[in-house]
Design a protein that fits this description.
Layout lengths: L2 H17 L3 E5 L2 E4 L2 E2 L3 E3 L1 H23 L1 H8 L7 H14 L8 E13 L3 E8 L6 H18 L11 H19 L6 E6 L8 H11 L3 E6 L8 E3 L5 E3 L3 E3 L1 E4 L10 E2 L5 E2 L1 H11 L4 E3 L2 H6 L2 H9 L2 H4 L6 H10 L3 E3 L2 H9 L5 E4 L8 E3 L1 H9 L9 E4 L10 E5 L2 E5 L2 E12 L2 E2 L12 E10 L13 E3 L1 E3 L2
Parallel strand pairs: 4-26, 5-15, 7-8, 7-12, 12-15
Antiparallel strand pairs: 1-2, 3-20, 5-6, 5-22, 9-10, 10-11, 13-14, 16-19, 17-18, 17-19, 20-21, 22-23, 22-24, 24-25
Helix pairs in contact: 1-5, 2-12, 4-8, 6-7
Length: 476
């Protein structure tokens, strides 16, 4: 394309993105488009089908771990001394499972498993996302944008990989929501409560999911933890009641993965997290579908990923997998090691780009690369080692041709673009949400999210880093 035609495509794509809600909130009355590619990433049919047909096993594994309370209590306890937030999560979990009455919630596991397609090893897991596993709607929207550009601007040329994340995620949520209602033979409106962060700018992705639920007859409500204070109560048969609204059938957390989400400030300016954390405990004591449960959040932590990755196939079968399924799961897991004096020596003897050092935080800014790893390891006290893990760094093959991306209304050229592939799965009380689907090989699969970035960039988040929304096209 020449400069004039490229500009026209870019302007048309920006208008399409804004018109279809692929945007971030800029102020109470304005928005900016989310960054995106003009051309999708290529993937072989073999690798795509392998991920699509295998990822449901990760959902099965994580659900089982999230309900194996004694196992992950022992797994998480060692990091609580240096990770106060995880100490608080584990304390909340103990409040639920060490007292009577027992929990009543129905676990709704909406998980995004993020992969990179290593040039030598093939697709390997980067991380699990079990709480606030968002941007599925944006994944579908950018796929639709590329389809629009293909139809009206003759690019890209090739077969795009279908992505129905909005429809599939909302279908899974709706199934769980109506399942709760049917238990109570409730003829009133079905209700879905989304717990959000205050003054959040990533709201349109959430609204796209809410709109899909509303179209299925479900009332959607948005509240922060602070807004829920003193607003929740118990109805008959452990039903959850929201003041001024009525019974709630599903609670979906888009917040709760950091201390700041729970902070309340009293009239003297003192911050307190305990009261709002009690809300989360209270919710799980009721008969309501919940994503993410505290158990799910702990089960998808970096600590748990490291422990799972270190297990052999036979050890993984304790979580409900057959030996053959465990072998498939093991093939998806990258190499991870605990931080020990021995692993530190291994890092120091390896090429500088061989490892990634991860702490337990969610979102951007929680991974260290290159020389920063040695500096951090030198600063750590041995008592802090267990709160960190080392992961063998993946090296995807960059695109063969320069990629055009659109950010803040301008076109950028990236010569070494690599994708991160997020695959969504939905489990309801341990069962695949789409188990009655015609595609029996991937009964919980619910669409994908592609975030691409320069291979030189470490922070690849679309919202918090240098990543851009992308989609997939078959390379063969």
């Amino acid at each position: 394309m020449n400069d004039s035609s490229t500009t026209k495509v870019k302007d048309d794509a920006i208008e399409w993105a804004l018109m279809h809600g692929m945007a971030f909130k800029r102020s109470p009355y304005s928005a900016r488009h989310a960054p995106f590619t003009l051309m999708p990433s290529l993937i072989s049919r073999e690798h795509y089908q392998h991920l699509k047909n295998s990822v449901h096993l990760l959902g099965k594994l994580i659900h089982s771990i999230s309900e194996a309370h004694h196992f992950f209590h022992d797994a998480i306890q060692p990091i609580t001394a240096s990770e106060p937030f995880f100490a608080a999560l584990l304390n909340m979990h103990q409040q639920l499972h060490d007292t009577q009455p027992s929990v009543q919630r129905m676990p709704l596991l909406i998980m995004r498993s993020d992969f990179m397609d290593d040039r030598d090893l093939g697709p390997k897991l980067v991380e699990f996302n079990g709480i606030a596993a968002g941007m599925g709607p944006f994944g579908q929207r950018v796929h639709q944008l590329h389809h629009y550009l293909q139809q009206w601007h003759q690019l890209p040329m090739g077969q795009l990989v279908d992505n129905h994340a909005i429809a599939q995620l909302s279908a899974g949520i709706a199934k769980a929501t109506f399942k709760i209602k049917q238990e109570f033979e409730d003829v009133g409106p079905a209700r879905f409560l989304m717990i959000v962060q205050q003054n959040e700018d990533n709201v349109f992705d959430q609204h796209l999911l809410e709109l899909a639920l509303q179209q299925q007859g479900i009332q959607t409500i948005r509240r922060t933890f602070n807004e829920l204070q003193d607003q929740l109560s118990t109805g008959e048969k452990h039903r959850l009641i929201l003041e001024g609204i009525g019974t709630i059938d599903t609670v979906y957390l888009r917040a709760g993965y950091q201390y700041a989400d729970y902070e309340s400030v009293d009239i003297n300016g003192n911050k307190n997290s305990l009261a709002l954390m009690e809300i989360r405990v209270l919710i799980e004591k009721h008969r309501v579908a919940v994503n993410a449960t505290i158990g799910q959040q702990l089960a998808t932590s970096k600590r748990m990923q490291m422990l799972i990755s270190s297990m052999d196939e036979r050890s993984l079968t304790q979580f409900g997998l057959t030996l053959q399924q465990a072998k498939i799961v093991k093939s998806l897991l990258g190499e991870m090691r605990p931080v020990t004096p021995e692993s530190i020596q291994l890092v120091e003897a390896s090429p500088i780009d061989s490892w990634v050092l991860k702490n337990q935080g969610e979102g951007g800014g929680n991974c260290l690369f290159g020389a920063d790893i040695s500096h951090e390891l030198a600063e750590l006290e041995p008592t802090q080692y267990q709160a960190w893990s080392l992961m063998r760094r993946l090296h995807p093959r960059p695109r063969a041709t320069p990629a055009l991306v659109v950010r803040n209304g301008e076109i950028e050229t990236i010569n070494d673009m690599i994708p991160e592939i997020g695959m969504f799965t939905v489990y309801i009380d341990g069962e695949p949400a789409m188990e009655d689907s015609s595609n029996s090989e991937s009964p919980s699969y619910a669409g994908y999210l592609i975030r691409s970035k320069s291979a030189m960039v470490t922070e690849g988040g679309v919202h918090s880093g240098q990543g851009v929304l992308d989609s997939l096209m078959f390379s063969d």
